[in-house]
Protein Churchill (Danio rerio), 112 residues
Amino acid sequence: MCTGCVQKQYPDRGNTCLENGSYLMNFVGCANCHQRDFVLISDRTMVNEDEEEIVTYLHMCKNCEHVIARHEYTFTVVDDYQEYTMLCMLCGKAEDSISVLPDDPRQTAPLF
């Protein structure tokens, strides 16, 4: 992974977890060829293991194929919640949890 290609390493993205794509606002340009062009996605893999889906791929420079960052996205269902995580030097780090129930018990306000 290349620290010279990104503005900030692993920026906090809150609950924005990307299964695909690139966070171009954090891309300053390729440290190898000094071009700021589109970022390619390469070597994308999807693995389903023990109720967990893991997607990994490489962000690469369009011009010289320099590896900018490795992206990892995970999806699991734990109890009544869908759990998402993302970890990537370019796209950042994020976590999200969404209830699979019609009404999220965590959002229920106490009556008294």
